[in-house]
Amino acid sequence: MTTTIGAEEEFFLVRADDRSVEPAGGRVVARARRTVGDLVSGEFHEGQLEVRTPPCEDAGELHRHLAAVRKAAGEACGAEGLGLCATGTPVIGGAGARVLGDHPRYRAGVRQFGTMLDDFTVCSVHVHVHVPDREVAVLTANHLRPWLPLLVAMSANSPFFEGRDTGYASWRTVVRGRFPALSAPPYVDSLAHYRRLTAALEESEAMLDANIPFWDVRPNPRVPTLEIRVMDVPSDVADTAALTALVRALVLDGAERVRRGDKGPRTCGELLRAAYWRAARDGWPGSGVDALTERVLPFAVQAARLVDRVRPRLEECGDVERVAAFLRRLDEHGCGAQRQRASWSRRSRPADVVDDLVAATAGTGPVSPA
């Protein structure tokens, strides 16, 4: 039986006039739910919303679900005079980038981290892979740790923040990286070790809740999945589906190694931190730190090594061509950050970047501007 997958995507809601973020999440979610029910929900800020899929057997099914729920959310936005925008950080700011969503956990986070959350306006894609055994899940995360910076580079889609080019391909990764316990998970020897660490971090107040860690890989607290949270939200739904397929293959490969007694490489935390930073700065088609070899290698070389490693799993799930097509798109057009900068270079207005992103999010415009 194929291991099921799921995905969650977060989006900004942008105004039609000045393309700034608008705090209309509650209204848009209520409209969209008439069509797709609880597959759409609010997010940390009122200028955002989240869509999700049910568990899916294959990446094609996941692609279809995401396209449908994006369409419903986009139509709900249109009814409110807004656009649905897939980018890791807001290209143009606005009041909606600062209005807190209505959830006790969000308010608790603000009390605990204060001003650090003032510009925490980010949109991600979260991938879920069914791993029912929690012990296997936390040890599988050890095998994923060295590959997380590559996933950052592949998905980087946040070069702009509130009207300016940050110089980074994934500014979202930089914003997240300054928080304690909000990046790569630590290496753990067992589920018991994992639980001791999260309990200690909660007591230190570096983590809000030991049961809901915000590391980039975690056993989901509510469903029996390993959740990968490291990536910017792609503007192209096909990229989300391909990244989900690649992540599933990586999880399946890691879980099999765990079952054979391999707890994963003890990758140096500082080296991994440097790899994250380099991937966030340069994105695809750049070079970055390969945490396994401790060398700086082109991301294309690292990706080829990853595909070789997980090819049997990609073949098993029927995902070889889907991932190959995604890598061809990266080679031809670069990551999302490259595409956003291409929009900027054509007309030199932040509003034009937003317009291209809204069109790409809806699947009605060019994902890769000339």
TrEMBL record:
One of its GO terms (molecular function) is ligase activity. Pfam families: GCS2. The keyword Acetylation does not apply. It catalyses: L-cysteine + L-glutamate + ATP = gamma-L-glutamyl-L-cysteine + ADP + phosphate + H(+). InterPro entries: GCL_type2/YbdK_subfam (IPR050141), GCS2 (IPR006336), Gln_synth/guanido_kin_cat_dom (IPR014746), YbdK (IPR011793). Keywords: ATP-binding, Ligase, Nucleotide-binding. Its EC number is 6.3.2.2. NCBIfam families: gshA_cyan_rel. ATP-dependent carboxylate-amine ligase which exhibits weak glutamate--cysteine ligase activity. Belongs to the glutamate--cysteine ligase type 2 family. YbdK subfamily. This is Putative glutamate--cysteine ligase 2. It comes from Streptomyces kurssanovii.
